[in-house]
Prior knowledge:
alpha/beta
Amino acid sequence: MKYSRRLCPIVPIFNSVMRMQVVLVPLALMFVFNGCRALTALEEAQQRREKRILEERNATSLMLSPSKATIKITPDALRGESDHYTLKFADDLRALEDFDEVEERKIFTESALGYMESLYDAMNRLFGFQPEHKIHVTLHHLYRGSNLSAVTRTDYRSGVLDGRYVKFINSIQMDFPIRMYEKHGVRVHELTHAFTNIYFLPVWFSEGIAVLIQTEYAKGGTHPKFDSLEGDLRVDLDGVNQLESWGGHTETNPLTHWRYRYAYTLVAELWKRYGKDFYTRVFRLMERDGLHQKLEGTMRTSFLVYYFSEAAGEDLVPFFRKLHFKVRKLTKEDILNQIETNSPRRRQ
Length: 348
């Protein structure tokens, strides 16, 4: 939005006017100039706010290209919609001073949807796929009583298709306290989850991919890589890599920070070894087979390593075993047989 500075009229005073006019004109001028100063202050405040918002999504610092998506905003600016997202303000956020006016919400919504669409385009290029459903984002002052917890949910239903158990995505919902949303690293991390959760990935890979995009693409990472996958390895009492038992965001554990860093280091190492299109190949193979839709729960690491190996053109089971993952070499037939064995319909 561009603002143009309004010109304040200056009324000349001529010596030939009546004395009463000479008295009244300066008073009129005083009101005009005071009004202009107030108007200028308001415009400058609006410009500062717009500049701050635009800087937060600066295309150079965030490595994002401007989006060409269509953005529609309701007259009250309580809800906005773009090609791939909806965004709305929760009741408790509308009451805050920064969001209690239509114009404030409008400027924020335009910027937020534009940024998210730019990131959507970037991840589509990186991963080679996109969710079929729109991603619904709700902004809160507090979410579940906290301003420190951003949550992404993928709701799905199950049914039988061609005689087989299949999961179908219903919706993708994201809930952000505004404090978390305004941290672009958190925003990118959660938006990445919304993008990849449709594949029911192991926690460590889902989190590793999110930190990878957050750190190396959007430049908002807080989890630096380790120097060595083997040197910084941690295992449990059974000698299994501690990533295998990761519970995700809800976990409160002294190992959590290590897990984020190690998952990111591992995901980045595979990216480095097999090329920047490695994960594009992985997700395309998954999409082609659609086996993730037939899983009862999230996929196991052995399942994932099968697709890693297919995309890399070599067997990666030895690599993961060296890092103490509990994996075995699978064929597609092994995976299909396991899916069929564990099918809820089969157990009835």
